Amino acid sequence: MRTLSMLLISMISFPLVFIRNNSIYQAIVMYVVMLFATLLVFIYAPNEQMQGIVQKIFYFHVSSSVTAFSAFFLVFVASIMYLWKNAEWWDAVALSAAEIGVVFCTLVLITGPIWARPIWGTWWSWDPTLTLTLVLWLIYVAYLMLRLDAHDPKRSRFAAVLGIVGYVDIPLILWSVEKWRTLHPKPVLIQEGGTTGLPFTMLFTFAVCLVAFMLLFFYLLRERISIIQSQHTIEVLRHQVDNLPTG
Amino acid sequence: MSGSKVFLQQVLALLAKDLKTEWRTREIFTSMFVFSVLVIVVFNFAIGADTELIRQVASGVIWIALSFASVLGLQRTGQMESEEDSLQGVLLALHDSSALFIAKMLAQVVYLLIVGLCILPLCGIWFHIDFIACIGYIGIVFVLGILGLSIVGTLFAMITLHTRAREVMLPMLFLPVSVPLTIASVYATAQLIAGMTLRDIVDYISLIGVFDIVFFTLALLVFDHIVEE
Questions:
Q1: Phi-psi label, residue A150: left if phi above 0, alpha if psi -120 to 50, beta otherwise
Q2: DSSP, res A150
């Protein structure tokens, strides 16, 4: 259910990538929302009764994990589009999303244990959700390594295949690890019958956090894609300069 | 009709070529078998002398040995194809490149099944496990699990053929993606060793089956993009 809702959010937020407004406005909006989110987390949202201040990491942890899943979904879509259309732009999207996804996935794997140590009394447990995140992290780190290593012309196609295989693997990994014991807190965001287990203040704070993370993700994505495109342009120009007749 | 006949003929010809080469050199099988025996022996030292503990982890050791041996075999197969560009020649002769994928995958299944058949009795003797009592069910798990390992492994072997650090990249890609398969195969085997029947492991069997079908379909869909120039 938890993963399902994440996938749902990632699919809804996906069209944001097509919004191409001026990047400085996007940066300002992102900055304001992030500041607002931080204020909400530390001042507005109440302390959880049982867990105390430790619970506040939830806002960053869950937002990071939704962002990471969105990024991996984007890698999947961009990989399919690249193999289908063979357009460089989709390849740039896939690479950028994979890099950012690995960063956010790393954040999830760092913030999770920080929360788990005082609450569960252990840094790590081989619970389904944790195992899934770790395996995904390994797959997408391998994706980045493949991009660095493979010879140039076919590298993008290999990476696209791995981007598809990795995402298709998610439900299978989840299915297999769920046959283990479950320790991870059940999703409090959406409970059976459509009601939420969170009080409004916490839910509002979380929603703002999620928006802030998404804005950050798409801002980074835009910037990364434009860097890749600039690199491409420079290569083309350098090639032209090299081929100029001398004298 | 004749198209599928040609396809089948090409698959069989390629498979026969690989198996014939292997029969003459026995290079891949030897390295896979010796390596998996080594893995089992080393694990045996790591676990210690507790017979009950060894019985519990035996299925894990067997599947780790098989997936490591699979990496080794795939690397040797890949090396053979990349020498003197023989892959290009094979691809030129083919009508449909997925014949190559299916043949390579079946060859890998054959190697792994033989290695599996050889290490099962060894594990039975060393770990004091009676495999004969449940050999039929274990056979199902082995065939399906090995099929999955070979599908994913062959796909990634064809990808890493073109990478510089081939020896590193293949396990880096292969092992995390095959995690669901490994989990399901290990637990299915463990439950069979513990005396359970097919009905208790039907969940795991269906997981392995779904893994096989999904990745086989996916591999056929994307294989053209991997090999085309």
A1: beta
A2: B
Contacts of A135 in chain B (CB under 8 A): 176, 179
- Where in chain B are the domains? 2-227
Report pLDDT digits (tens) over B114-152. 999 999 999 989 888 888 888 888 999 999 999 999 999
The answer to whether A9 faces chain B, any CB pair under 8 Å, is no
CA distance A201 to A199: 6
Distances (CA, A) of B24 to A65, B17, B29, B35, B70: 52, 11, 11, 20, 20
Residues B185, B215, B65, B132, CA torsion sign? positive
DSSP string across B15-69: HHHHHHHHHHH-HHHHHHHHHHHHHHHHHHHHH-S-HHHHHHHHHHHHHHHHHHH
Measured in angstroms, the CA of B26 and the nearest CA of chain A are apart by 30
CB of B217 less than 8 A from some CB of A? no
ipTM of this predicted structure: 0.90
For residue A183, give every residue at least 6 positions away whose Cβ sits within 8 Å of its Cβ, in sequence order, or none.
Answer: A120, A125, A127
Q: Which residue segments constitute the domains of chain A, with CATH numbers given?
A: 2-13+24-190+199-242 (1.20.120)
Least CB-CB distance to A139: which of B177, B187, B211? B177
Nearest to B179 among A83, A135, A149 (CB): A135
Question: How far is Cα A219 from Cα A221, in angstroms, rounded to an integer?
Answer: 5
* Contact (CB, 8 A) for B210 and A168: no
Tokens of A217: 């993700």
| From A139, A175, A177, residue closest to B176, measured CB to CB | A139
B162, A150: Cβ pair inside 8 Å? yes
Q: Which residues of B touch A179 (CB under 8 A)?
A: 183, 187, 203-204
Q: How far is CA B49 from the centre of its chain?
A: 30
**Chain B residue at shortest CA distance from A173:** B180
pLDDT in tens, chain B (229 residues): 578 888 999 999 999 998 998 899 888 999 999 999 999 999 988 888 788 888 888 999 999 999 999 999 999 888 888 777 788 888 888 878 899 999 999 999 999 999 999 999 999 898 888 888 888 889 999 999 999 999 999 999 998 888 888 788 899 999 999 999 999 999 899 888 888 888 888 889 999 999 999 999 999 999 988 887 7
pTM, two decimals, is 0.86
